Amino acid sequence: MIKQAIIPLAGLGTRLLPLTSVFAKELLPINGKPGIEYILEECIDAGIKEVIFIISKKKIMIKNYFYNDKFYKSIINKKKDPRVIKEYKKILKFKKMIKFVYQDKPLGTGDAVLKTRKFIKDKFFLMLLPDDLIIKKNCSKSMIKIHNQYNSSVMASMNVNKRTVSRWGIYKLGNRLNKKDYLIKDVIEKPSIKNAPSNKAVIGRYILPRDIFQKLSKQKPGKGGEIHITDAIQSLISDNKKFIAHNFSGRYLDCGSMRGYIKSTVEISKL
Ligand code: UTP
């Protein structure tokens, strides 16, 4: 069973500058609710019991969002506002399941994942990238089902425009398992159009094996000088570890750029 999830939040968010020079993009409201709450709700609905946030000192406002008890208590004492009471209860529910770990320098997603090594108890865990919202169908839940069926690592997958492959992790298809799931042969981080093995991209939901930590602890920086999770995954695939690409049926929304963020808020407000 997959009971733990990790969420890397320690990146710089340069695509949303100047906002992110002082603000954590994961707290930006999407139809009135911080983006990170959609991710937490997806986790809870998928049966996750513990979530590990990887943050940095610069992102401390994310922790403060969940640890503002004194403030809530004083407001509730003074006003007895049912709406505030309800919101505080929700925050408390989230707080109970979140642990915080720190990545001091943004050396890459792989380095962020490595910071959770001590806390992962089971053979597999879920990772969600908070910029990637998937609405209409719980992608994590479908992936956990696939994991349970094949006892394998799983990554969310989507076809992208061939011209944009250099923005994604792109993989080479292996055998088809069923209508939505394929084995992955190789995965490359941000390839050029020329080197891309397909137009099939990995989206920000992963079920990873604990073995990944051993790979990450030895991994050298890759594209752009960062330690990428994709490179550690490729290294496991080279060792014949099974990774499945799950073509999810929900709708993908990219909240990591201003254009995407605005589009996401409009889409979610229509639900
Ligand atoms: P991105 O590579 O998309 O970077 O990270 P970013 O910092 O969020 O945004 P841009 O590209 O500069 O605009 C994917 C996820 O991994 C986290 C980020 O917070 C994001 O959720 N991350 C990235 C880390 O936690 N640590 C890192 O060193 C890098």
What does this structure look like?
By secondary structure, the chain is of the alpha/beta class. The chain has a single domain, classed as Spore Coat Polysaccharide Biosynthesis Protein SpsA, Chain A. 34% of the residues lie in helices and 27% in strands. It has nine helices and 13 strands. The protein has helices at residues 35-45, 60-66, 69-79, 82-97, 109-114, 139-150, 212-218, 229-238, 258-269; strands at 4-8, 29-30, 33-34, 50-55, 98-102, 124-128, 132-135, 153-159, 169-176, 181-189, 200-209, 243-247, 251-254. A five-stranded mixed beta barrel has the order 8-11-9-10-12. A two-stranded antiparallel ribbon has the order 2-3. A hairpin with a 2-residue loop joins strand 2 (29-30) and strand 3 (33-34). The longest helix has 16 residues, at 82-97. Bound molecules: uridine 5'-triphosphate.
Secondary-structure element string: EEEHEHHHEHEEHEEEEHHEEH
Examine the coordinates and then state which fold CATH places here, giving the name of the CATH topology.
Answer: Spore Coat Polysaccharide Biosynthesis Protein SpsA, Chain A
Bound chemical compounds? uridine 5'-triphosphate
Global structural class: alpha/beta
Radius of gyration: 19 Å
Beta-strand content bin: 25-35%
Distance between the termini: 31 Å
Compute the average pLDDT: 97
CATH-scheme architecture:
Alpha-Beta Complex
Number of domains: 1
Largest beta sheet: what is the strand line-up? Answer: 8-11-9-10-12
State the shape. globular
CATH superfamily: Spore Coat Polysaccharide Biosynthesis Protein SpsA, Chain A
Low-confidence stretches: none
State the name of the first-level CATH class.
Answer: Alpha Beta
Number of helices: 9
